[in-house]
Specification:
InterPro entries: Split_barrel_FMN-bd (IPR012349), TR_PAI2-type (IPR007396). The chain contains six helices and seven strands, in the order αββββαββααβαα. It is an alpha+beta fold. Helix 5 packs antiparallel against helix 6 (190-202).
């Protein structure tokens, strides 16, 4: 991912937090000479060796998986808030642009066994059911319902490289920077407001 130095996020804790909060990603690989992509939750976890990995699952019917054996290198793309930035918000003439946060994770994928897949499902469901009034637990599902889990397989991605971009108008002076935040907040667009919030964190 091309990222000018000014927009690079090289803070491991910042990247870790982003991945945990924006875990619905795009898994990309090459299968039979063709690029394939699937939109799925891909969670940042720590393995038994204390190393950070990504994990998730795919349907066994998904042809993308055919490429895991012949080409185990994959790319997982995660995106956060983004918004159009009008140059009319500057105190000088310039071109419009787009602000956004994104992380690309490159690594090597491996399929895990059924027991590990079920453990991954338990963690995933527990995470997203935490705020439910009547949370669902994988442990409580019937044998009949759990038969559906036979149609998926879990995977782990050993991380080789992480590229993180946080393009939030860092190249603007304080006056224009604050004005961009103000204009984003006026839009009442959730994405724009989220970008304004991230910008406020970066420069007080």
């Amino acid at each position: 991912m091309y990222t000018p130095k000014i927009y690079k996020d090289e803070d491991p804790e910042s990247i870790r937090t982003f991945l945990k909060e924006n875990s619905f990603g795009i898994l990309i690989n090459q299968t039979h000479g063709k690029l394939c992509a699937t939109h799925i939750p891909i969670e940042l976890e720590v393995n038994a060796d204390g190393k950070e990995i990504l994990q998730g699952h795919l349907s066994k019917l998904n042809p993308q998986a055919e490429g895991f054996a012949e080409n185990d290198h994959v790319l997982a793309v995660f995106t956060g808030p983004h918004s159009y930035i009008s140059s009319s918000w500057y105190d000088h003439e310039n071109v419009p642009t787009w602000n956004y946060i994104a992380v690309h994770v490159y690594g090597r994928i491996k399929i895990v066994d059924e027991t590990t897949t079920i453990e991954q499902l338990k963690k995933l469901v527990d995470k997203y059911e935490a705020g439910s009034v009547n949370p669902v637990r994988v442990e409580d599902l019937s044998t009949k319902t759990m038969r559906e889990a036979r149609g998926i397989f879990g995977f782990e991605i050993e991380i080789d490289e992480i590229q993180a971009t946080k393009k939030l108008s860092q190249n603007r002076d304080d006056h224009n920077y604050k004005n961009i935040i103000s204009e984003l907040e006026k839009t009442e667009n959730p994405q724009a407001i989220a970008v304004a919030k991230e910008m406020s964190k970066c420069r007080k």
